[in-house]
Write a structure and sequence with these properties.
Structural class: alpha+beta
Largest sheet: 8 strands, mixed
Radius of gyration: 26 Å
């Protein structure tokens, strides 16, 4: 690959992480994440969850929950979506397929079709991916970087001179890929401008609303611009480029723009402005529709199986069945966080990273994905060699019916929980933090002699920042409690805490140490979760308090001394 392709971007540090090929990981290694990629010759095959070491129960529960959202709640209202198709993959195997509900159910925004005209979802139903389309444009752009045609750090105006007006002359290709260009989120292209040329010109002329590089703001206009750039530099329409360079090499036969078999597609919305009626087999997004159904931000249709192939190709380092669409370095760049200055908005080149609001317990620094407005989502977890794809038609028959984020979380969580975290010691460990809006306490007495004592335990933490574990003590039989500061050590130097920990998702057991004051104490681990978003939660194991050679508390030998309220026992999987 050309040096000029990657430009002056400071990648040496981020590429220090290995891009070497790594072997398969076992399912109970969620707490021992691997780096690198799967073998390039890995090809998906269907396997029962148990055959690859997964617990089938969380997967079955996720399927039950996905199906439950297809009916209106008993209290009234409407379903979350008409139907869904989902696929889960782990370690090169498709471990779950789910199709339920209806590809077409409504005649208009309020009227159901006659029951005999409802059309069921199938494994091969074709969905309007909406903004998941942005991933295809992003991959296409990175392919041009690989080719040496595009410099990631070059101004976009180098390739699209008409773009470099009204304060955008310093906007780089990377800024467009990472949503940091300062562009506004959206323009009503379909209604404000009369034809395709005027709509594209409106995007090129649009001034930034923020200084380039100063703000993270998700924007369709950025990807529309990249789509135009791909066409200009390749000499091909975007749909042809995506076909020739991505979908055809990977054998993704059901993926592309403007599908020809309308009857295989899931219906989306009944639209009155513009007056399109029930939209089916055409892109739902009005701006993409006004651009002929082919745009950088929306327009791709696909199936769950085709997206599984794309996911596995990326897990393989850019290759599937001997066809390479990206080199390993490029895939690593897709999942490198270029937006560290904007906490909570981690973003690689086109891919969102570490977003618990839809990735749930699969979320991590090397978890990449995207969502689509029509109800689609893709989550690829490189550390566990897994992916969770959920496609719904949540805008059928109306976008006003709300979000399907709960279902996205449930699908990703089902796969994450199927990968056990083994206890650090013995056969069991204590676990909490797996349910929203709860407080769980794990309490044990310890009589500390004069001179104090030392407390040690192992801790696994995978939570969002606002779900907090507090270690605390009471010297008045639980009437009052005070945080107990402790030190945490993973693989480097110990980090001192104030008695609380949250927001960790390194997926490794850590060692905790604390000094206990003299007295007849109660020792308590208190886990509190807020109302939204979850990780795997926390596990505590190997609790031991000593004073010199004297053992005061041994959780492995005497687990019965603990009073668990809201904590559960986790058994070793193997």
């Amino acid at each position: 690959m050309s040096r000029r392709g990657w430009g002056a971007v400071a990648v040496a540090g981020v590429l220090a992480a290995s891009v070497a090929t790594a072997g398969p990981v076992s399912a109970n290694d969620f707490d021992r994440p691997e780096k690198g990629f799967m073998p390039a010759n890995t090809v998906l095959r269907d396997r029962a969850p148990e055959r690859v070491g997964l617990d089938p129960a969380p997967i079955a529960e996720a399927e039950r929950l996905i199906e439950s959202h297809e009916e209106a709640p008993a209290a009234g209202g409407h379903p979350m979506y008409a139907g869904a198709v989902g696929v889960m993959g782990h370690d090169g195997a498709v471990v779950a397929r789910h199709a339920s509900g209806w590809a077409s159910r409504w005649k208009d925004a309020t009227t159901e079709l006659p029951r005999e005209q409802w059309e069921p979802m199938r494994d091969d139903t074709v969905f309007d991916l909406a903004s998941v389309s942005k991933l295809f444009t992003s991959i296409a752009t990175v392919q041009l970087v690989e080719d040496g045609t595009v410099d990631l750090e070059a101004p976009v105006a180098t390739y699209l001179p008409e773009f470099g007006v009204n304060g955008k002359q310093d906007v780089t290709v990377r800024m467009l890929l990472t949503h940091t260009s300062g562009f506004t989120s959206w323009l009503p292209l379909w209604s404000k401008y009369p034809d395709v040329p005027s709509r594209i010109k409106a995007v090129m002329d649009q001034p930034p609303t923020n200084a380039p590089g100063s703000t993270y703001l998700y924007s369709d206009l950025k990807l529309i611009t990249l789509g135009v750039m791909v066409e200009r530099l390749s000499g091909k329409p975007l749909d042809r480029f995506v076909h020739d360079r991505i979908t055809a090499p990977l054998g993704m036969r059901d993926t592309g723009y403007n599908p020809t078999d309308r009857d295989r597609t899931a219906a989306t919305e009944y639209q009155t402005a513009p007056p399109r009626g029930m939209v089916r087999g055409e892109v739902h997004d009005e701006n993409a529709w006004s651009l002929g159904g082919i745009a950088g931000h929306a327009g791709v249709f696909s199936t769950a199986d085709d997206l599984a192939v794309l996911s596995q190709a990326l897990l393989n380092g850019g290759t599937y069945r001997g066809h390479r669409i990206l080199d390993r370095r490029s895939v690593e760049m897709l999942i490198t966080n270029f937006t560290e200055d904007f906490p909570g908005d981690a973003h690689g080149l086109g891919f969102e990273l570490d977003q618990r609001w839809y990735m749930d317990a699969l979320s991590g620094p090397r978890t990449a994905g995207h969502t689509g407005y029509t109800g689609t989502s893709i989550v690829i977890d490189f550390d566990s060699r897994s992916f969770a794809i959920l496609l719904t038609n949540r805008v059928h028959p109306s976008r006003e019916w709300g979000s399907n984020n709960t279902a996205r979380q449930e699908w990703a969580r089902g796969l994450a929980l199927a990968m056990p975290v083994d206890p650090r010691h013995g056969r069991t460990a204590w676990a909490a933090g797996g349910t929203n809006a709860t407080t769980a306490t794990l309490t044990a007495p310890v009589d500390v002699p004069r001179g104090g004592a030392r407390l040690g335990f192992d801790l696994f933490v995978d939570t969002e920042d606002t779900d907090v574990l507090t270690l605390e003590t009471s010297s008045d039989d639980g009437a009052t409690w005070a945080p107990l500061p402790f030190a945490l050590r993973d693989r480097g130097p110990a980090q001192q805490t104030d008695g609380t920990v949250s927001g960790e998702h390194g997926r490794r057991w850590m060692q905790a140490r604390a000094e206990l004051p003299q007295g007849d104490l109660l020792l308590r681990w208190r886990m509190t979760t807020d109302a939204v978003y979850l990780g795997r939660g926390v596990l505590v194991d190997g609790v031991r308090a000593t004073a010199g050679h004297r053992v005061l508390l041994d959780g492995e030998r005497r687990p019965g001394v603990f009073d668990p309220r809201g904590w559960s026992v986790v058994q070793r999987a193997s």
